[in-house]
Batch of 2 targets.
Target 1
Amino acid sequence: MSKLKLATVWLDGCSGCHMSFLDMDERLLALAELVDVVYSPIVDAKQFPDQVDIALVEGAVASVDDEKKIRKIRAHTKTLVAMGDCAITANVPSMRNPIGPAAILDRAYKENATVQQQIPCVVVPQLLNKVRPIHEFVKVDVFLPGCPPSADTFHAALTALVTGEPLDVSALTRFGA
Ligand code: SF4
């Protein structure tokens, strides 16, 4: 059986979901027999490939860059997984929604800065007015809840996705359980 192509993507999240993915520890070795990680913050590839079988997306959509990225990923992915509560509900990043991007930028780059008090016009991507979950932009195939999803949950879900076998719900655990 040829290996499936797996991507993991980091939008507006804290990277905790990726840390929990890595917490699968030695089970990652067994997973590596079944998938090739073709794009991820944890590998060198910088271009999203033409076709990916499974993409795990961490984080909400908070900027123009995030929106472009999630639309591109959807167009090149068979099974798109919203990984964790930020991707599913916008969660922590959406705490800025009642305040708005202008006040956030002022606070970060002017009020809290001791030198060069100015809002950057390069490198920092243009923020959207509201941070929103990814299903408000593109179709999501699988929702993997948790902040973050536990390593056991990752393992159970990925095993089901990769083998095509039913999800073993008894293997799902809460983070820290
Ligand atoms: Fe971090 Fe939780 Fe959001 Fe994952 S769901 S990116 S762990 S805040």
Target 2
Amino acid sequence: MAYVISSDCVACGACAESCPVSAISEGESQYIIDADVCVDCGSCASNCPVEAIAQA
Ligand code: SF4
């Protein structure tokens, strides 16, 4: 189980800054969460201004 960023992402970067394990990186058109690194803390989801992050 990991969090996933949807296509609603506006690439603001707020999630990446909030991730304690640096699981989030910038992709071609939006940010991406590395499921192998994510520890399911939920910090990114609560920091996303467009609610683009949810548990998969
Ligand atoms: Fe990082 Fe936590 Fe979001 Fe996983 S749930 S990507 S560990 S901030």
